[in-house]
Each structure stands twice: as structure tokens, then as C-alpha cells.
Amino acid sequence: MKRFILKKETQKPSEYLIKYSDLLNSQQLKAVMHDSGPALVIAGAGTGKTRTLIYRVARLIESGTDPSSVLLLTFTRRAAREMLDRASSVLDERCNRVKGGTFHFYCSQLLRRYHKEIDFPAGFSIIDSADARDVIQMLRAELKLNRSDKRFPQKSTLLNMISGSVNRQIELSDLVEQDYNQFRDHTEEIGRLKKAYEEYKRKHHLMDFDDLLIRTQELLNTDERVRAEVQLQHKHVMVDEYQDTNALQSALVKLFTPYTQNVMVVGDDAQSIYAFRGADHKNIMQFPELLTGTEIITLEENYRSTANILRVANSVLDQARNKYEKKLFTKREDGELPALVKTEDTREQSRFVSQMIMNLREQEVPLHDVAVLFRNARDSFDLEIELNKKKLPFIKYGGQKFADAAHIKDVLAHLRVIENPADALSWTRILMLIDGIGPKTASDFMEWLSGNTNPYELASSGLVNESYKSGLYSLSQLLIDLKNGSFTPYEAVGHIKEYYSPICEKKFDDYPKRVKDLEALHALVVDYRDYKHLLEELALDPIEATAIDVEGTSEDEKPLVLSTIHSAKGLEWKHVFLIQCLDGVIPSSFSLNDEDSLEEELRLMYVAVTRACDMLYICYPMLQHGGFGDVMTKPSRFIEHAGQDLLEPWLLTEEEQPINNENLLPEAGAPIKQLNSGK
Length: 679
Ligand code: ATP
Ligand code: MG
Hints:
Blueprint: H1 20-23, H2 26-33, E1 39-43, H3 49-62, E2 70-73, H4 77-90, E3 99-101, H5 103-113, E4 125-127, H6 129-142, H7 155-167, H8 172-179, H9 187-203, E5 206-208, H10 209-222, H11 224-233, E6 236-239, H12 247-256, E7 263-267, H13 282-285, H14 287-290, E8 295-299, H15 307-318, E9 339-343, H16 346-362, E10 370-374, H17 381-389, E11 394-397, H18 406-419, H19 424-431, H20 439-449, H21 469-484, H22 489-507, H23 511-524, H24 531-540, E12 560-564, E13 573-578, H25 595-609, E14 612-621, E15 623-626, E16 629-632, H26 637-640, E17 648-654, E18 672-675
Parallel strand pairs: 1-7, 1-8, 2-3, 2-6, 4-5, 6-7, 9-14, 9-17, 10-12, 10-13, 11-12, 13-14, 17-18
Antiparallel strand pairs: 15-16
Residues 24-25, 28, 43, 45-51, 268, 271, 303-304, 570, 572 line the site of adenosine-5'-triphosphate (ATP).
């Protein structure tokens, strides 16, 4: 046999369109030019990890790599889209053809493509955790497990157990033993429930989020042909925010790895904040063991924040039990000292934040360069009222998801039964919206439906009863139209909305608000080509509740961002307010007795602080008004330990009130901010 050796054709830097060396520091450049084999970019916040991946995408495409052979996995689909848009803007449109998305999204695509191999219909439905809890509740009753004398775990605990065992890849019985010892006597029943849950999903063509990952793993582990095909399709795999992956996701990374071993993961172990979803911050440190020969690249220079903000970030990291090796440094100027703003109560905190934001706007800082961050979605409720009063438009990330709201689920369930006629959960949901149909009748219908080739002809079921006849006919007509009408998702949602509005009005007291949501949903689906894509996107990357329900947004003013710290991951703003910075909030009161949880809260604090570019305002109220009267609070231990010299205390005084009490004054030179009375 004759041998022909293919030469490596590396491009010279001068041949690139983009002048990478002018735009990146030497370590970043090394990562961008990295050609083959596994690589781990591990670095602190704001050191350009995401930017490096963006330029690496551009560089690979520029070097002639087929965009569809590049896989970019990110934490949200929004992040993937933004990164590819950025890459397209620095190079060209080809970058948008890169495969980008979350692990769940990519796995769902693979499973639909290889549905025969996993013996599942291509049109399976994806259920979210609320749906999964409902199924578990129903099965628990069916198996009569709730009748036991001893306390049996609740549906959400059961789901956490099942999901935890899948994500952490440990036996359910071991997990119960380790983490839920109080339910040890029920291990056998919990196991039975898990089995029934698996069977139910199979029968009704459903997959929950965990299934998407676990099924893909099984498929690639067992089917060599599929594995080879998938691996051949990938020339390069890249993962951002790798510190928040779990054991299953790392196993998938390994399975996706092309024969060239071209995998680059980037992340910051000090920013791992998703342990409650099974993420393991040690994963990132163990990446070199996952793929041998990993090149480790570290980035040290922070480009995001002023030196003074970084000092606070470093002092937070210094408090970690688990010492992180990095210290952030910047060539940026010191900037203003971050503010420590003590307010009387939450009201005053809201007044301060909103007035300060108005001041910034007057100083030409656009609203979208400002963010308010908090530990829990509820921490911003008071501020939201204040912002509405002042007509300051905002968008909120985190908290309840739009697609989780009952009325949105109701509407989507109609589309789901069209896509997957075996989706019993959605059938039950839409049948029970009809007056006169309760759980018993719905379950009679379910029996009739199963195995029926024409399930939308509900009127021919022989189950028609006067009390719900007209409602049933209307539903049947709607479904037949949706099935046969070849509507776009926009048209379909329009029809469902018309059918559903009177039901919604009867069902919910706050109907007017919900109608606005339905309109928002209608507007949102305009770009979708088919029902399947729409349902898939909404299930996997739910739009955040208030993200589309922005009060008073004008066309030309982008809104202020309100976000939970979790949802602010990877993002940055010029001015960041961190509110409710209290002990018991951050760190959360649930974490106080557990060192690992406390450590995770500390990392969360580090994520919050490192979102700010120019100015950071840490705020806490001294009093909390509660059901049992006023409670004195304590500032977060993380700022107490940060040391006062890193933060400048601000004193708030009411307008027109002379400052005559020396004791109230902060140290000499501290700024005194006047609040406008009442407004
Ligand atoms: P995080 O840990 O928060 O995800 P990151 O490490 O991904 O942060 P990036 O978001 O990529 O950091 O970068 C932070 C900021 O620094 C961005 O505004 C980015 O454009 C800027 N930046 C990064 N590297 C450079 C560079 N070499 N020159 C100029 N700006 C840079
Ligand atoms: Mg990033």
C-alpha cells in the first residue's frame, strides 16, 4: 500500500483577516490559536474566557473549518446566540452556522435524529420539572404510597431524589442513604415510584430534562455506529462555563469528543454556583483526567472591573475555605471605592436605588448599563414597585419563568397534543379546562384516547355528556383545525387564544394581566416555523417571566436589568447595585449550618461583585418589616469580613434635613447622599 502524508497547513498570523494579536493578550491568543487536542482555559471572572471562545470560533472558521462541524455548548441558548452573533460581527455570517446551544438542547436534537435507535417516536414531548412533579404526584396516589403511616417524601423531594441520582450518577438507594436518611425506611417504595415514573414517560412519549442527557449518554455508549457518526460530525467542541457542569455532562463531553480530541472547555472554579442542580465545581479541576494530554491555559488579567472593585472581589475569595489559586489583577485605574449603603429599611433601599439610577441616567449612563442584583427573585419586589412608580423601564431575569405560568401552559398544552397525541399530561390539562370535566371524566377520556388513531374526534368517543357537550365539541373542533389546518405557530396560537380567553377569564381573577401575557406569547411565536421548534425552545430555554412583560419600555430606551445573581452569570454592567446584602439572605439562612453550602454562597457573592465594571453599590437595610414586627438585620458576613477600607460607607439623609448629628456621619470624607423626600 502506498503512503501519502498530509502536511499540516497552518495559516500564518499575517494571513488572518482579524488581527488577533492586537485584540487579545498572549495567553488568550494561545487559546485562540490552539489547534488540536484537549485544552482547559481556567481563569477568574472577567479575564476574557468568553471573549476567547468568540474569537476562537471566528479563527477556526477563518482557517476553513466547516461551521457546522463546530459545537459550542453554553449555559443558556441566549448566551450561545449572543456569542455567535459576536463572532459573526467580527468575522462574517458563517459563524452563525456553528452549532450552538445548551447540553439539553443539543441532546434533544440528537435524540430526535436517532429516535429509532432509542426506540422512541421522533415527536416526543419534553416535560419541565413542574410537569414531572405532577406525574410523580399522580403515580404516588396510584401506587397508594401516600397512605403509609410514616411520612413519605413530598413530590418535589421525590423528583429531587430521582433527578439527583441521575445527575450525580449514583444509585437511588445510596442517595437516599446519604442525603435523605430520614426516608430510609421508604427506599423500596421510592424505587418503585421511580420505576413507575420511567414507565409512564415511555408510554406517553415524554422525556424530562434528565432523560435528554441520560438517554444521549446511553445511546452513545451502546451504539458504536451512532457514536462514530456523532464524533465525526464534530471537528471542534467548546464549552463555556464548564464549572457548572455535572458528572453526566462531563461524560457527554467525552462522548462528543472527536477523534482529533479537539475539545476546549473554559471556566472558573470560583464561580461554580449550581451545586443545587447537581453541578460539581471539582469537575473543572478534573478535566485533565477526563481527556489525557490536556493543555492548561490560565488567564490572569481582568479587563472588566476597576482595581477597587477587584480588591473587594479578592477579599471575598480570600474568605474561601477551599483556596482558589487566582488573584485577579487589572491594569485599569483604581476607580471610585465601591459604596456600602446602609438604609433604614427596604423602602429606603428602593428609594435610594431608584433615585441613584435616575441620577446616573441624567449623567448620560444608559439604563441598560445598570443592573440590580439580588440573591432571591423576591428580593426585588419592593424595588419593582418603586421603579414602576418612577416609570423606569426594567427587565427581570430569574424567578418564575414565563412558560411555567399556568395560563401559558394551558395554551401550549393544546399544541403539545397535536405534536404528541400520547402526551397524557397535556390531554388531561386541556380536558379539565372544560366546565363539567373533572379528573374522573378526564381519565375515562384518557383510556379512550390511548391507542386511538383519531384522538381529536372527541365527540365520537361515546363519552359525551350533556354537562360538557358544547365545551367538548369546541375543543374537538379546535384540535381538528390545528391538526389539519397547516397553520403557522403564530396562526395556531391566535386560534387557541380565541378559544381559551373565555376559559381564562372564568379561571383566573387576575385575567387582565394574564391576557397581556397571552398577547406577549402570541407576539413571541411569530418567528417560529413549526410547532415542534416552538415547543422545544420554550421547554428547554424558558423565557423569563418578566422579560417580555416590560413595563413602560419605549422603543429607543433599552431597559434596566434586574436579575438574580444566578441569572447574571457571565454578564457585566457598568454600574451594579447589590441589594439585600444581609446575613440570612446572602449567605442564605439555609446554608448557615453546612460548610459546603456556605462556600457556594461565597462563590455567589464573588459572582455578584465581579459583574461590575465601573461602580459597585452594596446595599443593605437595617430593619426588615415582617409579619411579627420589625426585625434588626445583620449585614452579610461576606462584607463584614471584606474590611471597611475596601468599601466606602455612604450616608443617606432626607432632603432639606440639616445634617447636625455628628454621630451619624461616616468617616471623614465619605459622601453624603441626599434622598428626595417621598418620591
Ligand atoms: P466571566 O467569568 O464573568 O464569564 P469572562 O472571563 O468570560 O468573564 P469576558 O466576558 O470574556 O470574561 O470578558 C470580560 C470583559 O473584558 C469583556 O468586556 C471583554 O470584552 C473584555 N476583554 C477581555 N479580554 C480583552 C482584551 N484582550 N482586550 C480588551 N478587552 C478585553
Ligand atoms: Mg464568560
